[in-house]
Amino acid sequence: MFFASDNAGPVHPQIMNRLAQANTGHAMPYGNDPIMDEVRDAIRTAFEAPEAAVYLVATGTAANALALACYTQPWQTIFCSVTSHIHEDECNAPEFYAGAAKLTVVETDDKMTPEALTKAIEKHPEGNVHGAQRGPVSITQVTERGSIHSLEELNALTAVAKSYDLPVHLDGARFANALVALGCTPAEMTWKAGVDVVSFGGTKNGCMGVEAVVFFDPAKAWEFELRRKRGAHLFSKHRFLSAQMAGYMQDDLWKTTAALANDNARHLADGLRAAGATLLHKPDANMIFAKWPRRIHQKLHDAGAKYYVMDGPLEGDDPNEPLSARLVCDWSIGTEAIDQFLSYF
Amino acid sequence: MFFASDNAGPVHPQIMNRLAQANTGHAMPYGNDPIMDEVRDAIRTAFEAPEAAVYLVATGTAANALALACYTQPWQTIFCSVTSHIHEDECNAPEFYAGAAKLTVVETDDKMTPEALTKAIEKHPEGNVHGAQRGPVSITQVTERGSIHSLEELNALTAVAKSYDLPVHLDGARFANALVALGCTPAEMTWKAGVDVVSFGGTKNGCMGVEAVVFFDPAKAWEFELRRKRGAHLFSKHRFLSAQMAGYMQDDLWKTTAALANDNARHLADGLRAAGATLLHKPDANMIFAKWPRRIHQKLHDAGAKYYVMDGPLEGDDPNEPLSARLVCDWSIGTEAIDQFLSYF
Amino acid sequence: MFFASDNAGPVHPQIMNRLAQANTGHAMPYGNDPIMDEVRDAIRTAFEAPEAAVYLVATGTAANALALACYTQPWQTIFCSVTSHIHEDECNAPEFYAGAAKLTVVETDDKMTPEALTKAIEKHPEGNVHGAQRGPVSITQVTERGSIHSLEELNALTAVAKSYDLPVHLDGARFANALVALGCTPAEMTWKAGVDVVSFGGTKNGCMGVEAVVFFDPAKAWEFELRRKRGAHLFSKHRFLSAQMAGYMQDDLWKTTAALANDNARHLADGLRAAGATLLHKPDANMIFAKWPRRIHQKLHDAGAKYYVMDGPLEGDDPNEPLSARLVCDWSIGTEAIDQFLSYF
Amino acid sequence: MFFASDNAGPVHPQIMNRLAQANTGHAMPYGNDPIMDEVRDAIRTAFEAPEAAVYLVATGTAANALALACYTQPWQTIFCSVTSHIHEDECNAPEFYAGAAKLTVVETDDKMTPEALTKAIEKHPEGNVHGAQRGPVSITQVTERGSIHSLEELNALTAVAKSYDLPVHLDGARFANALVALGCTPAEMTWKAGVDVVSFGGTKNGCMGVEAVVFFDPAKAWEFELRRKRGAHLFSKHRFLSAQMAGYMQDDLWKTTAALANDNARHLADGLRAAGATLLHKPDANMIFAKWPRRIHQKLHDAGAKYYVMDGPLEGDDPNEPLSARLVCDWSIGTEAIDQFLSYF
């Protein structure tokens, strides 16, 4: 009954197999391994972007921080949502990599709106040397509250960015979960929607620890390579990053695992609703925020269920006080564990 | 015939097995996995340092840069050798992580001497606000020229550092190779010799991508955790770093693979000497620098041998001009490939 | 009719005289001039802080950024108000000097409240490695909206900071204006109120370009000296910073000029109210925010009056639409210019 | 008898007068003062560079660090001489402003040679992601040992830089001293010689605290303005920087004071030679390095003479042991003080 995060599950067997296969003899280090050529091709094909520059790193924070740094000057500010991972969960890594740039929160509850984004940008007038200068817009898809931007919403946000000539980054730690939920193509969710660079997540969706950074404009390629090395994120035995991503792309495994995770979440959400819990955000992908009485939390806790209780202590006087929780399903959790979880309601 | 580096070989089966074993169910992320407890214990035991703070990262550059940053203020300079990896091969990562600190080269050919170190430190008088301030001393064991500091040499260097109250970092990317060559204990080569923090390498010696940072003074623990996260080096699926290191420590595999690598190098060095090549540095561990005529380089190259030619182009007029080369042996290379290599002389 | 800022007026004659007097022969550079001894004594006496470390820099942004950097780790966040100069008007200088730390806005309109500060701090739970860590609290006195914290308000804010063991910085670019308005002592407005370091402004209040940074705990002294030098803010001909500050402290000139500025603002505020303008913030010190019809703005503009119109444009269809403006009075402006300004209403 | 530095003398009366004249009424802040227009014109005219971007800062370290930062990426290294101010005397300010870039010392005693520069650049092969990348070349004219590069030497160095497509910075803290010694034009010593940006010093040559940064390619203008603000080096009461520089440029005062300083040094050097002291570097400008017996140092010291003794303690057993000293003459020192100094020999 592990719903604490999708970053704690096992690696998919297909990926483990590719790691084992890759482990023969010597291979050129630092990204010059032949498996990386396969990965580059696979990602370019998937994104319909034959010129894209494709790189691998081992953590999502590295992907975000390095990608953003390529588009941010130290005197600029990055526009992001209040719930964004780069703002809340990266311990100033984006600021560090961008040379002490700022992050500006676009004031909405979760997903940015074009109006709120415009307002945030307008607060930083051009030509004013005293304030932080306008920098890139970073959109998180799926958001950290489990919401998905429709293609229409995405295009509306990037249109604002483009109208100010600002680059757009997509934090796709859960890119696959959004994609299968929307039923669109990778191109539609990225460069066709005005995205310049995407963090294409693997770790949360069945890999061991690998994320791709995909630049649709290859002009940033060499700068990224230098930033990655300087950030100490260039792997010598790089083939083991490549092998993970190769296994992930092979036969669209990435879509399969994402669909599994989303299905698991839907099953759990349906069960929670049926059990009388209140759902707090629309569970678009594989993340659920919901509220139910303390006494049920306590039973679940005693039974070993793992998830975050967002407000208030588990211990408390009122057994019926509703406490909200975050539940994340990964591809591996399965309906059995979910049903077991629901059985405590 | 792969002698380009020890960072390009396969992962040892014992480590692959531990990765496979670790891949069951969910585990707490970010270093809270139970395998990390095992690793911590194993390293503390190996180093006879029950209080040591032990952390894992995936690259040697990350280990060095993060470890040094914990001991360096941005207005200080790190004293290192002219051949050190931190100075030559990390694309300003140590400077980046230490907040724009400087590196000062101690002027010797390879290994620092106490005299040269003293001179370098004395050039930065205390209380002079205009110059870079004295920072930590970083020693590389094995050096990037394949030399090993004897325990006596190590103690002499740290004595200089301590006399100025400066902390000492040991870049142990090839820690195991030095240790088995010296036949000493990990404690003797680190804290008993005055080392405050060590980058304990795994990647070059049979792991997939893992290095431990070991602080003998646990006071730096929390700062390291924050720096690691901020540097984007904290793994969510951390158990797969832990599993590698657990497999590496188990039954002293790390010493076994290092001894294999050193034996391979000795076999190669003996063969080169017998074949008339000139050895340029004393090959203490698993790295050899040697010189032989261009025409033999050309034959080896045509036969697919991989290694770095240090001076001059492989193509050239004089077939007998001696060109120097770097040859690195890893644990897996084996005498067969070495003898094949030697057969071209 | 110059009301654009108090940073654009002339230097007070008493300060010009001290500069002229200082200009004889040679003086030891870099802060070792004898006038600096006089300044240190004068400021220690004024603040009743015989142990305080006192330094001079030439700009307010340097004072703020260097002072904060001494209390901020790169992985922390500085708590400040939404209108604070460090957040809005320093082009990421605080982030730069603090090694890429973050700024967190405490959500109120202008002055922080203890409740809002507590909420902002609580959003950064201790021991959570993923988020920015809690850093210093920076309070602006006078605020950038012209408001003054009463001693009670100040003590309530620092009590919150202290309850979390966080240091407190006071941005006193208009310290003197606040002090004479409150009628308190420098000690009461700083260390007695829990302030650890203050940017004690001179430039806006009659100096040429000098600010003091006063640390009530002298333990930060050497770090500040190194940070100042590294930031390129250590003057060689330092006596000309000292002379300004010496002239400023002499015979309490700093209180005299501040009182003049506040009186000018009061005269202007009274006149505006009498003329039917709407005052937007309580004008506690020397800054006024007020609203009046566009047509009067236009007349003033044509007559050469200088001040910022906040919600323009100056040109517009409706001559009676009220537009708000910021008016700042310095010590030198005088009632004549103010009455001339008011004559256009 | 003050020979410790040229940064400790008085401000020239012509400059004090301009400061006094500038002190009337209000002036637009932050570089928008009309005197800055005059300064810009004067410098463009002097340098025969009608398009040059001209900015003022208050310290030489700020001029160097900000100018270099505009031409340096964080993963690059700046090539400089072993005696350069940026390497030895700026407490890591260039590294700080350039985002943690490196400095690489070109190995000569003082002035770079084209051969040594080429060698230093070649050690950083293009396309090698592991090492620091090639960055700008910074030349110091006058060097910190008092030597001047002839125009031929300067052109030879910049030719090397240009052959690698590297930008060139000139640290001209003593620009005027070199210029009058060479008898050339500012254009000949800068853009005609391949210099891209120059720190044009004022402080050491009769100003209070002002240096100009002159970009011959105005494309860097806005970036410099943002870097200056972010570095906290943008003055609000900027007219008082402008007034200094205006006074300095007026009627070629800058050449007059430099000629005075150089003449003073020549007088002192002649006297020292006559008195039997050994001159260590060729005293091309206003700085002298010489050696004479300890007992004379002691007499001079007792008589209040101020200068740096470079080697060994003033106190010592052997009264005849020669100790070397650095003596710097500014424009104001005059022959009387020099002759008094020489009378102790």
From TrEMBL, chains A, B, C, D:
<dbReference type="InterPro" id="IPR015422">
    <property type="entry name" value="PyrdxlP-dep_Trfase_small"/>
</dbReference>
<keyword id="KW-0663">Pyridoxal phosphate</keyword>
<keyword id="KW-0456">Lyase</keyword>
<feature type="domain" description="Aromatic amino acid beta-eliminating lyase/threonine aldolase">
    <location>
        <begin position="3"/>
        <end position="290"/>
    </location>
</feature>
<dbReference type="Pfam" id="PF01212">
    <property type="entry name" value="Beta_elim_lyase"/>
</dbReference>
<dbReference type="GO" id="GO:0016829">
    <property type="term" value="F:lyase activity"/>
</dbReference>
<dbReference type="GO" id="GO:0006520">
    <property type="term" value="P:amino acid metabolic process"/>
</dbReference>
<dbReference type="InterPro" id="IPR001597">
    <property type="entry name" value="ArAA_b-elim_lyase/Thr_aldolase"/>
</dbReference>
<dbReference type="InterPro" id="IPR015421">
    <property type="entry name" value="PyrdxlP-dep_Trfase_major"/>
</dbReference>
<dbReference type="InterPro" id="IPR015424">
    <property type="entry name" value="PyrdxlP-dep_Trfase"/>
</dbReference>
<protein>
    <submittedName>
        <fullName>Low specificity L-threonine aldolase</fullName>
        <ecNumber>4.1.2.48</ecNumber>
    </submittedName>
</protein>
<comment type="similarity">
    <text>Belongs to the threonine aldolase family.</text>
</comment>
<comment type="subunit">
    <text>Homotetramer.</text>
</comment>
